[in-house]
Specification:
It is built from three helices and ten strands. With 224 residues, it is of the alpha+beta class. The protein starts with 16 loop residues before the first strand and ends in a 10-residue tail after the last strand.
Amino acid sequence: MARPTPAIVPVFATPFAVVPVAASAELNAALGALFLAHATEAFRDPLAPPDPLCFRSREDLFEWPDPVVGQLRREMLAGVCAAVMAVSLYSEAEFSELKIQARARFLIVRADGCIPAGSAPMASWVAHYCVAAPPPPAPARADSGVVRLYGTRSATMFKDAANWNLREPFGGSHQVWRPVPGTIAVFPASIVHEVALNRTDSDLVLVSARVRFSHSAQSAAPPW
């Protein structure tokens, strides 16, 4: 008997974008110095417990008056818009009618530090911009400092010999992004993600933003 040929298409796909920022070396040098100077108690997120291995700033970074922060905001929001436009059905004219809101903070993950897993509330997208990253880790520590995205789509699936080893994009494995200075990772805010333990002697410096869009025909979103 001839084997039937099935028509297979991916469903419930999740977008993940990496957007490069042009001429980022000068920007990152200025941001690195600025963040190091502001990694103090006065700028620490009051809702986060003190952690000597990971500094988490308040979520008002995009409101700072520094010109370099203004440049960062423009670059990150442009990257988010480019990613969202690439996966949406809006025309360019329709997309330009949307209003964007964003809250951002900087993160310094020191040696043996990490950022616990979580999602971004009251937002539709998350953007992580890499300011500085440690050199590639030893093979035994290949996941050092990666941003790990947890795949929960098949969490309640019954596992057997026929579905535990599916090929991409149908597998249910977790995904990782290794931060590279000058790049932005953009993905849906509902995805649970973390920054794995930094098993190097150098700091990982990220800017994390949660972003949402609104249309004039929509009712106002609740406050951040």
